[in-house]
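Interim report, section 4.2 (structural modelling).
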Amino acid sequence: MKTRIGVIGLADRGSGMLGILLGMEDIDIKFICDLNVERLEKAEKVCHEKGNTSVIATTDAEDLFASDEIEAVMIFTSWNAHVPLAIEAMRHGKYAAFEVGPAQNIGQVYDLVKTYEETKVPCMLLENCCYGERELMMKLMIQKGVFGELIHVRGGYMHDLRYLANALETGHERSFHNLYRTGDLYLTHELGPIITWLNINRGNRILNLSSMSTKSIGITEKYASLYPEKPLKFAMGDLTTTMLTCSGGETILLTHNVSNPRPYSRGGQVQGTRGIWMEDKDAIFIEGHREDGKEEWEPVSAFSEYTHPLWKKKEELEGFGHGGMDYLVLRAFLEAVRKRTQTPIDVYDSATMLAVSALSETSVSQGGALQHVPDFTSGRWVVREPMPKSIYSLDEIHEDLFEGETLTL
Amino acid sequence: MKTRIGVIGLADRGSGMLGILLGMEDIDIKFICDLNVERLEKAEKVCHEKGNTSVIATTDAEDLFASDEIEAVMIFTSWNAHVPLAIEAMRHGKYAAFEVGPAQNIGQVYDLVKTYEETKVPCMLLENCCYGERELMMKLMIQKGVFGELIHVRGGYMHDLRYLANALETGHERSFHNLYRTGDLYLTHELGPIITWLNINRGNRILNLSSMSTKSIGITEKYASLYPEKPLKFAMGDLTTTMLTCSGGETILLTHNVSNPRPYSRGGQVQGTRGIWMEDKDAIFIEGHREDGKEEWEPVSAFSEYTHPLWKKKEELEGFGHGGMDYLVLRAFLEAVRKRTQTPIDVYDSATMLAVSALSETSVSQGGALQHVPDFTSGRWVVREPMPKSIYSLDEIHEDLFEGETLTL
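Predicted structure of the assembly:
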């Protein structure tokens, strides 16, 4: 039987994800939903073209929540709607998946957790980078102890998005947030994998953070160049750094920088008592690994034995969004829906990511003052059950699941 | 007439610097001083071998302070003695230079500044990396506006010093500090150049900082492997990160990591509204610089036109300590002594560096709590006079001074 889902939000990201979902033979998209009729009709046409002629197109998300036809709701809307829609889906007994974005305040994060604990319906922040090739490779290397005991990890979202400065005209929501808010509002691409590396919410937790933003120049200048007759001053600092401490004694560093010219990077770094990986160098140093004994970097390719099994099928993944990560994160969620198991990124992981973004904003507003990050597990993090065994598991990679057969992802 | 100096502290660093000083024909080393007679006699022998047979070797620093024969005292002692000895030298009317190290508390930093303001005798933290090839190149590129308006800079001291774990036996002071203290105690190698890049104390100042340390494993494990019968628990966190805000709206990130296996790096990064340099990639991206228009890095060598004039004589510098930086920082200080001018790193720059290390320790002890960094200039930073024009100037690089003639450094 196919997994029956509804999709809400059909702008750029939603229509892209819809395209990937339509290619999955075991998925039945029962509903598509968007407030914008034009986008809705365009998506409906795409569904029809791909052979799904029974899809119901609606502008009212309540139609999805009320339906007995679907098992899960996938939310690709604007940031503000992610958590409220996920909560509503869970209240109606439907698995909820929602796209990357910040929490708008810490209260809604508590609400999300409370809804899960009342309903026991899983929800998942669809952090695709948890399934990135390098990120999964690092998880495997960490699990195998290659880095020794972890002490420090880094990541970031460094992406010149000044071209979106015209989005106040075209309606891209990120620009509205950038106009009024400052702090790290887009940190899950790095914090998602970091949570898996450090076993956050599973014997470890984030304790405190401090966050500092620079002045705001990049987007403001870009906007002024596009609309010299009506310049606007954007609030978003060009670059935000956030430091976090963990109960396990590790520290984390996050960087957000979307307003300045630079090559794209997620700035990953994993450092332990035996060695270090640095994404920006695409290099690793592990004590004793080099045959010549030199204290010099080696290319990551020298450690290809640690490629995650999912990425040994790289050529199959390349046709999908963001080099395959989008496909994998969707499959990870949909497998949990089909099996009625916990999602590999669960409500606590999702809440942690959401909370850190909201608290970054708080800390920046206080000049970098220390903020305590809540334990959303209410103490369960010290005695968590392992996640269900799956090829998509992120608490532990189960290499044995990949043995002996060719997988159909 | 030769510049007449005294040298205090003749252990590893001091004897190395003494060797460089002995090679300078315009310098007369009148005194050498160390509490350790063995070290003192060894250094005296070296002086004699190099033709300085009139040097006075003493275990009493008061002999130097009381002498009318010397114009400057150069302090290469243990960290704890740097500031007290510098203060004593200034009180006796002698220029004071002292080696890299942390302040032990914020009070002694105020004392240093007060002594300068009472005596008007300059002092200088001998931060050699201010004269590093890359660091001076960045200063020149920044001055010429290549990076646009600066928003964020980074640096660090990432150097696997675990081999010093046996220093509790051999007496190397860093290990004693590492045994009892945690925080970034060794940040001047990056903060020195950063101060010059951001014009700190000259129209800009550091406002606040937050500092977080990881658990301490690296040195403790190394020590236990060397002395399994008497293991010790070192306090120094393996890695410390410090974020700082500036009144100009820039942020700074510093990293201290001396306890884990990794290739050496000072982790430099300069980022502005037009581009970015990253030391670990040895690469630069400047908007519009690539002929192919790609959003990809270029090697630093593509910007060799910005090599600082001092480093165009690289082959002459290579014979000296740390690839020439030691020679340059010594010459910079000695030129100021000879000309009776302000030192290019002045008491306020030195105080800022010292204070940040002490406040990093404070912040770490409070879990990362925000610390205010004092304005040691007492407001003068908003109206500072330019520094004396010199080939060693760090507030501004004067390329015209290098025109037309071959310099003798």
